[in-house]
TrEMBL record:
GO molecular function, one term: structural molecule activity
GO biological process: COPII-coated vesicle budding; mRNA transport; protein import into nucleus
Organism, scientific name: Fistulifera solaris
A single cellular component GO annotation: COPII vesicle coat
Gene3D superfamilies per record: YVTN repeat-like/Quinoprotein amine dehydrogenase
Name used for this protein in its record: Protein transport protein SEC13
Keyword Glycoprotein among record annotations: no
Lineage: Eukaryota, Sar, Stramenopiles, Ochrophyta, Bacillariophyta
Amino acid sequence: MTTAEPSNPVPVDATPGPIYIDTQHEDMVHDAQMDYYGSKLATCSSDRTIKIYNVSENAYELSATIQGGHEGPVWQVSWAHPKFGVLLASCSFDGSVLLHQEVRPREWTVIHAARHLHESSVNGVAFAPHEHGLLVAAASSDGRVSVLQHEAANNTWGVHYLTDCPLGVNAVSWAPWGAFYQADQVEAPRLVTAGCDNQIRFWIYQEGQWTTDSSIVLDVTEVAHKDWVRDVAWAPVLLPNHNMVASCSEDGSVIVWTQVPPANVDGDENTQESFSQWKPTLLHKFDAPVWRVSWSVTGHFLAVSAGDSDVTLWKAGLDGAWSQVSTVDAQSTSQGQ
């Protein structure tokens, strides 16, 4: 059920800096995501609701409250590309993934309810790049990742399952379109997942099935997570075969994995190795668990949300070393409210 909210824009301080929004959730907020245009904000909470806000540089307003769909805490939300309409996916402790669409301004409806999609909590959800079609991946504590695919011909949804980590999967992220390039080949969808076995895993869709991407080799000899990997995020790509993935862990570590471009074989520029190595760089070791990592649109900045109530912003220098450039801490948050 959707509750349309009255239009009462709340002005915000015009001074440059963070904008604080009173979400009006009745319990802990677990995720907040901006849409493609940066004009809508979706939040989800342990109160089992999703709230949609219209936002601008100098005001925000609560547009709708989506409630009654999930039977447990809602962990994460994800916006689809606008070519598919105003579409939002949500995942919950109840093992389900729901797809919500704004059919009219301020009016939302569930267009697909994948209930009991998993046998345990669904911890992460993400839409694929629109070039692959309408696909949404979900990571679950039952150790599997599901990929929902919309069949436009008959308006139905199919599902593929990946058996990932037996201990559970906390997050999933898609490779951006253009992340990998091979002449005369259509780019295959790829995923990276965050597991409760302290590892990240890469997956590729080939010949009608999802398999482990054996072309990616991770160098874990010096830097690795020592506890659950809580989140993983594939950076936007500016050049093919120049990829970065950020992961964060319960142990407080944030690692940036950087692809080493495939080397030429025997000096032949048209022949490359069939695999690529990924080198890890420890961005920082926090004193508290790190829950979320998120890239800027260009992939130049990385936001990190940790258990110390701080959100920090990081940027890599020309030498490859990461440095903190900004922070939003609990003290400033309380002052802003």
